[in-house]
Every structure is written in C-alpha cells, then in structure tokens.
Amino acid sequence: MTDTNSRDLLQLACALADAAAAHSMRYFRTPLPIITKNDQSPVTLADRDAEAAMRAILAERGPSDGIYGEEHGSERLDAGRVWVLDPIDGTRSFITGSPLWGTLIGVLEGGRVRLGMVDMPVLRERWWGLRDADGGGAIALRNGQPVQASECTRIEDARIVCTSPDIFAPDDWQAFDALSKRCAMRRFGGDCYGYAQLAGGTIDLVVETGLQPYDYLGPAGLIEAAGGVITDWQGRPLGLQSDGRVVAAATPQLHRAALQALGA
C-alpha cells in the first residue's frame, strides 16, 4: 500500500496489536482469576487490560473514531471509521496455556471492512489484509510476506476447521457435521488461527456459529484481501448486525457449494 492514508491506518493497527501483546503476554501461563461473563464465556484481567491499552492509544491517535470492543463496550458507532477489537480471541486457549490465541482488529469504513488483522503473539505471526482507500486493490501479508487463499473449489477436496463442536446449536451442528464429513479433512480447535490459515492457503473452509462482530470482522478483512470469501450462512456480507453464523471459503465456487450444503 503506497498511499499515506493506508500506511497510517496500518501503523495505527500495528500499534494497537503491539500494546495488546505487551499486556497479554505478561499474563500468559501465569495464575489468573477467571471471571464468567453473562454469556458464560470466560474473561481474565489480561483481556481487560489489553483492550484498555488499545483504547488508550485510540483516544490519543483517533479520538473521533468509533470503537466496538469485546471487553469495554462500544462508542461512536456512527463514526466514519470504527475499530472492532478483540484483545484475546481464544480466551480458553489462553487460560489453558495453548499458543493458539490472538488479537483481532477490524476497521470498518462506510460499513465495510477495510482492514483486518489477526495477531498471534506467542507464534510471533502478524497477519493483515488491507484495501486501498478507494476500495480498489487489496493486499494480505503474514510477517511481511504475501499470502493467498487456496484454489480449492470442491467440498470433497476441502480442509475444513472450526473452533469446537460445542459452539453449534443442534440443527446447526447437523448441517455442519454433514458438510464437514464430505470434506477431505476436518479439524477442531485453533480459534482465530483457522481464519489465518485459510488466508494462507493451508485451510480451505471455516464454518462457525455463535460469533460476535469482534470475532469475525478482523478475520473477514484478512480473508477478503487474500482472495477468499466470507459471509453469513445466507451469503450476506458480514457487519455489526450479523447473526454470528459465518462461512469462510478459499474460492467463490467452494463458498457457494458450502452454503448449498448448509441449506442456505
């Protein structure tokens, strides 16, 4: 990206990811009290401190921007630019000492994801996708190297992943189970890393339910910039009002086949 606006946006996103990592890594694999939120998901001091650090940077460098965060709520969602923040995606992985948790950052401009970042502090991998300010070209990188989704077009050839069978309601599980058993390989676990793997071409499908905007908008920006497709189960673009059911695929052909198999 050569335009100043894009460079500045990426630099700010990287500053947020650096701040989140500095706080979360300080707590990783240390004894932490675990709090259960109203939705029964766990949260720790690490999650809350990391998001607070990100918000402090935005207060200084983007005071008019909106924020939609997992731990500290939302503000100015009608702003021209909205930052969607998940300081630790995969809190259960974090709590259990697994390295497969990350920081997710999405930037909405005009209701569309312009930048998406998946930062994996333990793995030292930073994945990001960014569109030009005019909505034209896009680029996706991992640690400075270009990445591209695979060319897989058939369910029978696809490698599919989701975080856990536990995320599905019974009817959704039945649909996912039938689809995934047709695939060449299915894997569980990895949280946000599955979306990065799709952008990098080693996973072809991610299908999940029960997600929130801070779970999917950062990955959406990365996957789209890498040439993949990501929507809800009805094939609609993802946004702040989506229902939390997500289908990400390496190619439009595979995406259409997955939607059909899910009964969309």
From TrEMBL:
GO terms for molecular function: histidinol-phosphatase activity. Its cofactor is Mg(2+). InterPro entries: His_9_proposed, Inositol_monoP_metal-BS, Inositol_monoP_superfamily, Inositol_monophosphatase-like. Its EC number is 3.1.3.15. It comes from the Bacteria. The keyword Amino-acid biosynthesis applies. Keywords: Amino-acid biosynthesis, Histidine biosynthesis, Hydrolase, Magnesium, Metal-binding. PANTHER family: 3'(2'),5'-BISPHOSPHATE NUCLEOTIDASE, PHOSPHATASE. Belongs to the inositol monophosphatase superfamily. NCBIfam families: his_9_HisN. This is Histidinol-phosphatase. It comes from Variovorax dokdonensis. The gene is hisN.
